[in-house]
Each structure stands twice: as structure tokens, then as C-alpha cells.
Amino acid sequence: QVLPQIVVIVDELADLMMTAGKEVEFLIQRLAQKARAAGIHLIMATQRPSVDVITGVIKANLPTRISFHVTSKIDSRTILGEQGAEQLLGKGDMLYMPGGKGIVRVHGPFVSDDEVRAVADHWRAQGRPDYNTAVTEEPEDGFALDGAPIGEDSAEDQQYRAAVQLVVESQKASTSWLQRQLRVGYNSAARLIERMEKDNIVGRPDHVGRREVLRDRDGHPV
Question: Does a structural domain hold residue 128?
Fold first, then answer.
């Protein structure tokens, strides 16, 4: 059976980042790195292009970007890596940056509400939707998909799970790297690494201080 093409659209990324920033950032990173091969594509939008919404991790995994008119050079650099979007004229005027190439100025057409409805009606006429409600239901055994318990765990446990996901996914176990990723102090990052060592997720440091990650990217022991 041929799998369908899936387009994931996030209409306002800022809302997600305010409620569960690090978890959302990790999931976006994971999708962006692996999903294209499975026919899953991401379209993400925000009206607040600040560095706490469009983080370095998200930018690194979304190389193709579009910016409409923004209010400042800082916002333009946050989106595109350089200024220029603050000088756009609005009404569809945009800067388009294809992955790995230079920025191109293009203009989007005006699409009326009637045209949007006509396209939506056309797609609805192609067949009945087949919704999979299981994706929105909580697992019955009380565990999330990544094996993390669902419940009223502490903020420290939530941070630890996020740290474990980062280390396992990236196969890096550096205290300074984890400190930058989680935006915590060095001592906090060191305690997280030490806890992972006790849980047999990372190994003991070698003679130069490097640690081996003892889980593969799927979380299985190696």
C-alpha cells in the first residue's frame, strides 16, 4: 500500500513555542531531519519572528524560507540571516530563500476568499476524508510515544527527558553542548549528564572527557 503524502502546517509557531518550547523544537528538528524521505513536508508560519520562536535549531532544519514585510532589520536577519525584508512593500511582496541558494525577491498573487473556497470544494469532491482519531487519543497504558510517562512529573523530570531526547537524537553527550541547547547553566547541564550516566544512557568520560552515547537514535541500547 502506497503511503500518502502528508503536509504538516503550523499556522502560528509562537503559540507552540510559548507552551512547550523545547519539546516542540525537538519534534520539529526530528520531523525536518527524517520526514522528507517518508513524504512528510513542513510548512511553518509565525507573525512574531523573534529568536525565541525561530530558534537556531529550527532555522538549521528549515533551509527554505519566505519573509514578507517585517518591521525591523533584526526580524529580517532572524528569518533570512540578512536584512532586506524590512524594505518590502507589502501586499504579497516577499523575499524567497531556497535551500542553499541566494535570496530572490518575488511577488505572491492575491487569492480571494471565493478562490480559496473553490479550491477547497474541489479537493473535497475528490473523495471522502478518512480520519485517524487514534493520533489524538492518549495511550491507554499511560505512556507517551517515546516511552516517557504521562502525568504530573516535576519540571526537573521534564527537563531531563528533553535532555535525554537531545542526546540520543544527536548522539552527542557534551556538557557544554547540552548547556547551549537547553539554555541552562553549566552546573545544571553537568547534573543532567551525570544522571544519564547513572541511567546507562551515556558512558563514563574517557581520558579527554568524551562520553559515548549508549543508546541508538531509536532509544535502544547499543
Answer: no
- Strand ordering across the sheet containing 93-97: 65-67, 93-97, 104-107
pLDDT higher than threshold 60 for residue 150: no
Query: Would you say residue 122 lies in a domain?
Result: no
Tens of pLDDT, residue by residue over 6-44, are 888 998 998 888 877 778 888 888 888 888 788 888 999
Residues 103, 81 contacting (CB under 8 angstroms): no
For the chain, the C-alpha Rg in angstroms (whole number) is 21
Pairing between β-strand 40-44 and β-strand 6-10 as defined by DSSP bridges: parallel
Query: Distance between CA atoms of 183 and 46, rounded to whole angstroms?
Result: 22
Q: Where in the sequence is the domain holding 26, given as residue range(s)?
A: 6-115
**Count of structural domains, the chain:** 2
Q: What is the value of pTM for the model shown?
A: 0.55
Q: How confident is the model at residue 217 (pLDDT cuts 50, 70, 90)?
A: confident
Please tell me the predicted confidence (pLDDT) of residue 19: 78
C-alpha span between 119 and 214 (Å, rounded): 50
What are the cell numbers at 215? Answer: 543508546
Residue 65 CA to residue 81 CA, distance in Å, equals 10
CA pair distance 164, 193, nearest whole angstrom:
9
